[in-house]
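ARCHIVE CARD
CATEGORY: sequence design from structure
SOURCE FIELD: tokenized fold
FIELD CONTENT:
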């Protein structure tokens, strides 16, 4: 699931929200002289990124920081273009791995990321993180969160319908029925927002594919396996079965991410299949909700269940930044123990660079346990060879829900996209 310039056109401006922390510094530095850095982040990370910026500003009162927020689709389309045009932000969300146009690999190949190998955070970063932050031995992003994709439940809504979080596929379908009898849906689904379309698939293939074939993507790359002849078929079948069984709200293709969050916050939905970062968005609307995140079961054997878990939020540095020193200071703060703990405490995620002083949010207790036990698998697109595969996945899920393709057609399209770009 997981996981985000400065000069914007009128249409794009309507899609962005900006929060600016400015003003004269207490040391007397004039606004004209003070360094000004721009940070562009994903809307799903609004709460944690603003918390980190506020703390950074307290320690660096002479630095002005402006945060611009954009949704995933806008970021992935507009950020690379703005960077190429020399109009990008100083620091910005970058996706780990290689799966989309704003990923570490894609941006580094276009020389749109500054190398960060010499920064202090790189000394304590786990080796297991480097495959999604490094390119050809150099580090090009500071990883901030370890997130997951799974079922986020409102404990109040579960109690209202008399249910408990399911651990098997049969229990999951039964809970969909129970929720419906109580006038709710089990899961809010906002497939009008393109990046949301992938999440249920990822949550299911973690078990139907990667529990038994952790190197599935490598085998597909070598031509040894295909999407069509793998557990991806079972996952897509189950995704559609959930829809037909009434597990989701009506008209998912006409429901946005924001509307899905509102359904959970208002109690109309028991939960949502989302990245862990959505916890902060739900809490912002309904601070009193007791939320818990669990793996989405795909079989009737709980021991088989896996959860997608990986580095999610990461940030890169614009090599053309006019305020490089101040931007590097912010990058360093994101990689520090204080920055990591603050970002993840307010975002209900786990530090990508672990440290003993962090206290895990109860909402993601299972994520932490699975991270330690080794029952998580990387986000699927982080290992794909090209952004085109993820875009094909978005399109095929939408087509499945629109009824304009079937599972055979969707899997063939994924195989075709992989072959053309591997």
């Amino acid at each position: 699931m997981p996981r985000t310039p400065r000069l914007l056109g009128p249409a794009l401006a309507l899609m962005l929200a900006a929060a600016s922390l400015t003003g004269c510094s207490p040391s007397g530095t004039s606004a004209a002289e003070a360094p000004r850095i721009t940070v562009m982040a994903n809307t799903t990370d609004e709460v944690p990124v603003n918390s980190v910026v506020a703390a950074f500003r307290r320690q660096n009162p002479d630095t002005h920081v402006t945060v611009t927020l954009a949704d995933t689709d806008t970021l992935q389309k507009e950020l690379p273009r703005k960077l190429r045009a020399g109009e990008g932000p100083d620091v910005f969300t970058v996706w780990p791995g290689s799966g989309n146009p704003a990923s570490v690999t894609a941006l580094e190949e276009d020389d749109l990321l500054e190398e960060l190998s010499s920064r202090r955070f790189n000394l304590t970063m786990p080796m297991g993180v480097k495959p999604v932050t490094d390119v050809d031995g150099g580090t090009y992003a500071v990883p901030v969160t370890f997130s997951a994709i799974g079922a986020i439940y409102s404990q109040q809504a579960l109690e209202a319908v008399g249910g408990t979080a399911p651990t098997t596929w049969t229990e999951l379908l039964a809970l969909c029925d129970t929720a419906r009898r109580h006038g709710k849906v089990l899961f809010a689904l906002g497939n009008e927002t393109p990046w949301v379309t992938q999440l249920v698939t990822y949550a299911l293939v973690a078990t139907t594919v990667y529990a038994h074939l952790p190197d599935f993507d490598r085998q597909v790359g070598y031509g040894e396996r295909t999407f069509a002849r793998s557990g991806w078929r079972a996952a897509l079948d189950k995704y559609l079965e959930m829809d037909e069984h009434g597990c989701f709200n009506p008209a998912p293709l006409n429901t946005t991410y924001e509307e899905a969050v509102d359904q959970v916050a208002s109690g109309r939905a028991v939960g949502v299949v989302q990245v862990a970062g959505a916890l902060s968005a739900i809490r912002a609307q309904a601070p009193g909700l007791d939320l818990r995140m669990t793996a989405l079961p795909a079989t009737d054997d709980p021991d088989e269940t896996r959860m997608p878990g990986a580095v999610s939020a990461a940030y890169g540095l614009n090599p053309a930044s006019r305020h490089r020193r101040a931007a590097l200071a912010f990058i360093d703060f994101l990689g520090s123990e204080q920055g990591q703990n603050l970002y993840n405490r307010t975002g209900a995620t786990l530090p990508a660079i672990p440290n003993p002083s962090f206290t895990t949010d109860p909402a993601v207790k299972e994520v932490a346990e699975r991270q330690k036990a080794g029952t998580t698998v990387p986000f699927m697109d982080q290992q794909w060879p090209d952004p085109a595969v993820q875009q094909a996945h978005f399109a095929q899920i939408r087509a499945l829900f629109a009824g304009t393709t079937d599972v055979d057609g969707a899997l063939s399209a994924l195989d075709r996209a992989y072959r053309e770009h591997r």
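CARD ANNOTATION: The mean pLDDT is 91. The chain has two domains: 10-144+313-353, 148-309+376-421.
SHELF: design records, drawer C
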